[in-house]
TrEMBL record:
Origin species: Acidithiobacillus ferrivorans SS3
Ranges for region Disordered: 1-28
Domain of life from the UniProt record: Bacteria
Residue span, TnsA endonuclease N-terminal domain: 77-171
Hydrolase in keyword set: yes
Name recorded for this polypeptide: TnsA endonuclease
Keywords, in A-Z order: Endonuclease, Hydrolase, Nuclease
CDD domains recorded: TnsA_endonuclease-like
Domain TnsA endonuclease C-terminal: 173-255
One GO molecular-function entry: endonuclease activity
Amino acid sequence: MSKGSRRSESGAIARRLKEGRGQGSEKSYKPWLTVRDVPSRGLSVRIKGRKTGRVHHLLSQLELSYFLMLDDIRASCVMDIREQFPLTPIETTLEIADMLSIPHPKDPKTGEPIVMTTDFLVIVTSADGERRLARTLKPSADLGSPRVIEKFEIERTYWETQGVDWGIVTEREIPQSLVGNLRSLQGCWDADNLPAVAVPQIERIEAELHRALSDKSIPLFQAALDCDGRLGFENGTSLAVAKYLIATRRWDIDLHQPIKTEENLHILVRGHGSTEMAPER
């Protein structure tokens, strides 16, 4: 390996550190890797977080599913979500790999060691105070790979030395109906995404929709269309407000049951409840 290649790799690490990658918290946090740093097959996504107020960089659809669970208002114990978190300094993981007699991950082009990352470092609160949870996302089909297990062992040992709870999350731990609903509600919590005409009328629309849905024979889409007609809105306005009400938990529903607009919507509670989705999977 040429000295130029070694300088190039160490230079990339130094550049990311100088940019503040892997540093900060909440809105000021910058992930070590962004969607532009990693080759994509159309699976990477940038998404604005409700809890941090910043754009998150997610490198797989599995990461997106888990993120939506963490960022949902019902996961009220989650205070901060830091994706693509670096295991730095790199000397620590190099020492761990050497101790375990496991090859450290390298850049395939330069052959130089790279900074390892954990998909999510989650900050949660509980009765015992603030805790950090490190979570790695991986399809269950990949768990049979010896190399995957080797890298997991480096990662697990790193977090063990930091006193941080580390774990693996696969698609088996992610409720598909819940995530399907969260995907359909993605961004609906942000009032800026509502039709402008609806924003000052949210309370009126909510009352009209709730009254209509009290008739259990009326499906959600019909209640929304009727509401649009009565209030003189374009079709789709009241349905957008209904999704906003669900996403902000003004309407509390069972998100483990698929939301079907062709069916009546069963509202459990009007207003904010206290149900919490635990992220410790």
